[in-house]
């Protein structure tokens, strides 16, 4: 078999991947096209992909007419901190649940799920009251705490899943070598689950980055608002600022895409690490 | 293992840094002294509404250097969650947005102060009487109306002139106009222009257009009846209104496809793209259409919603305004700000920029005298009705939307749909009773 | 003695999660469950009425219908996400060239806020100036515009499609990571046993993915069962109730009608349904684990 020959199965795989990518890119392309249009061109009855008078005004307006700079700074701070905390807690819990036998393991995991199963609109008021009672309303700290609590359930569940797929024989071997539990966790087991940590961190970051309702209700002042709240404000009672909305959404995509590109490499490197072991 | 440690240290650093900045940034900055009036508003985050409102606030602060007006902007869709959260923990701002649909509930929460007291009855007398009526709950003025978006019929004056049509007054004239403006303009055998952008969506936007129509036939979806409530959804007049919606789509075919998912933004797009000739809308509709297609300037006008023979037009006034919270310690200053906001000069400025109609009599007179494209809506104000202040009113409105949707779909006759809407409404009345 | 030390260590490792969940899970849930026994506006009216809210819900036709609709919606979306997400993850795991590019492109929908996704799809579905009709008409597949969100038979599928577009990348990424943590030795061992491609998939890949799939399926079900934004913005529950999922019902009870007790009772019903579903999943997916 020469290097250039593509196996039929691979050809099919490529075909499917290209097709799926198209399904993804068409709406995204439309967003870009909308962001580049002037307001007079937004609603022509014929679908026009290329704007007649493309302009970058909307991309400039996002930062000049609205305080999106501050929104971005807030979002990055809040979501980074909450993601790091959530992943750290979840990894510890994942190790604890899969490596030790103690009563209440299962119920702890189920208990974590409860808020995920309760319509979040009904959680809004108790969260507000809780933060109000400790004076954290309209602070970034409140959002960090709230987001950790939203991210933890899936993170913990995922980490339990990934830790479970690492054979316990490794722990036993480490114990024979005289490793403490904590060192075993940090130096032997955790590195093996790095692909899982990366995937989970991506999840945590994205879900925090796009959270809207709680950010809106738990903060009030302009300088505490996050990116989704800023985007939500472009949808008015009677009018949607389409081009600004799309420009802001595309900006919001940038940090996420960068994080994803950065972390998805870890998924691969984790794979090789696993293979070498 | 070096990497692990580095990552760990990095994480710790980020954590510590985050906690520090989070804390230092959170300290409230009230060094200036003086008073701060907080205002919960949805218009402040809109454009161009927000710019005008902020200008007015800035001007007020310039005149009163010891007062700071601090807006809390929330998109209108999320106003209620925010307000309820604040009310339930006793932290309402000094001034908050209110409207007739929410007024009764806000009183139930004990939230708004009596404005007759705070603003003085002399100032209150300067509102249009319709505005005062709708802002009052059990005779208490709960909010100061600062704009209305009365329902009217927007139409294309150029197409009407071409077809030799007059603005419709009755529903028969409306149907005739719709049929004559529905056309195949490029001669390819496909209809490409329709008479009506009909809002058939199952949301409050759809309901907001349908209910004035219903009332212009002489039926009322919900009204106070002694101690309780009564519905006229299953009257013959109501059936005519449901029938009209069905007929516009299925019999006369004067609406583009997709009526059931046509809500306000879609209808505005239909008008601005030159696909439809008429649309029932609030006064902001003209501004919205023109913003998307400035070429239509001078080609749009409005009249009150058409009516059935022997009945009057009807208009949902779409009021919005500001309440002062009962818990505020600074009611006087908050009242001063509201009076400033509602001065004739500021009301006219606001109206010109936003297409929202003021509710101060002096400002209304000024707009009608100017005879712009908003004049038709000012005329519609006299036909305004107060939405019933029942806590379950939303369900009643939604019941109406479900009924016209099933008539349009052909799932039910107008009478069956009307009966179903009445049944759903009576269930709500009973639950509340 | 070993087991006592074990238990203590295990508890210490899980302590942070336990603390967070006690404060931020227990209180809100208890508050919500508590509300469901009251007739209340959350401020100055708190009338204890026992199970009355539940009794009313049990006879409320529109609520029961919304539960049914929600089952349909959640099933469509979770199944769609699982199938599309897992398939794409397997494709991306083949080690083809340009995989990184595909991986980044395919994850994009996940990165958008739900509000934006809903607005974009609403525009694409628009019968007059939307993309679907324009393309399908041009391609000659349909000969007159279809009002996708108007037809009670189509609307639920149309809404679910938008939700799947938004939802599959999460499954894809998590499964992709799950594939990496399956030890290569297991595949080598399977090769020695002369297992074919399909055999390896069934006996190595699937069991290896089981813990991850379990977590994904449990959480996905819970999320989509109480999903609100996309449905609300696309159809608001219409046409004629065809997409009135239970979270819309709850939203209207709470924030439009201010019937907080009713809303809380409906939320508790959702909680119980999701718990039951997750218990079933855990039984089914764990069965041949041990």
Describe this structure in words.
The complex is a heterotrimer of chains A (277), B (433) and C (290). Chain A is built from 12 helices and no strands. With 277 residues, chain A is mainly α. Chain A has 2 domains: 1-55; 58-276, MetI-like (MetI-like fold), CATH 1.10.3720. Chain A is globular and about 75 Å long. The two termini of chain A are 30 Å apart. Chain B has 433 residues and is an alpha/beta fold. Chain B folds into 2 domains: 35-148 and 318-379, D-Maltodextrin-Binding Protein, domain 2; 151-316 and 390-432, 3-Layer(aba) Sandwich (D-Maltodextrin-Binding Protein, domain 2), CATH 3.40.190. Helix content of chain B is 49%, strand content 14%. Chain B has helices at 2-26, 49-63, 79-88, 100-108, 115-119, 121-124, 129-135, 157-162, 171-181, 204-216, 236-250, 264-272, 284-292, 331-341, 344-354, 361-370, 375-380, 393-409, 414-432; strands at 35-41, 67-73, 95-98, 136-137, 140-141, 144-147, 151-156, 194-196, 223-225, 228-230, 276-282, 300-303, 315-316, 320-324, 384-385. Chain B has a 5-stranded mixed β-sheet, with helices on both faces. Chain B has a 4-stranded mixed β-sheet with strand order 8-11-7-12. In chain B, helix 11 (236-250) packs across helix 18 (393-409). Chain C is mostly helical and 290 residues long. Chain C has helices at 2-35, 52-58, 61-92, 99-111, 114-125, 131-138, 152-181, 184-192, 197-225, 229-235, 246-256, 260-286, and strands spanning 38-40, 46-48. The two termini of chain C are 26 Å apart. A two-stranded antiparallel ribbon of chain C has the order 1-2. Chain C contains 12 helices and 2 strands; from the N terminus they run αββααααααααααα. Classes of the chains: A mainly alpha (277), B alpha/beta (433), C mainly alpha (290). Chains in contact: A-B, A-C, B-C.
